[in-house]
Amino acid sequence: MSRGPGRVQRGILEALEDGPLTGPDLARQVGAGEDSTRRALRRLEAGGRVVCLGFALGGGQRWGLPHLREARAALLSPEREAHLAAVMGPRFARSFRRAVVSGL
Q: Which SUPFAM superfamilies does this entry report, sorted A to Z (predicted)?
């Protein structure tokens, strides 16, 4: 029987209320190791409490609360991204997607 989210998971949820962060940034804010932060993120993602928004410009996955995925989709829908890739090229489309994720 589950006892609820642990210290690292609670810290992650509190930190993400202020906006999306990368895994290493979350580990620093929570005061935990990167491995335990990654495990906590996977458990929270499986429970639908956090979502991966993609990769940030500096590298690393950017994590946020579920409502931010809808905001990202509103900014860059799959159709819009496909059109951008057709016009500007796939490499530019990937860079633009990373810029959108970093801007959230």
A: Winged helix' DNA-binding domain
Query: The tokens of 46 are what?
Result: 């499986």
The Cα 19–Cα 104 span in angstroms is 8
In a domain, 35, yes or no: yes
Structural domain of 50: 7-103
At 42, the amino acid letter reads R
Residue 64 lies in a domain: yes
Task: Report the distance separating Cα 90 and Cα 64, nearest Å.
Answer: 25
Q: pLDDT (tens digit, 9 = 90+) per residue, 21-36?
A: 888 999 999 999 999 9
* Structural domains counted in the chain: 1
Instruction: Report the b/e string of 41-72 with b at 16+ CB within 10 A.
Output: bebbeeeebbbbbbbbeeeebbbbbeebbeeb
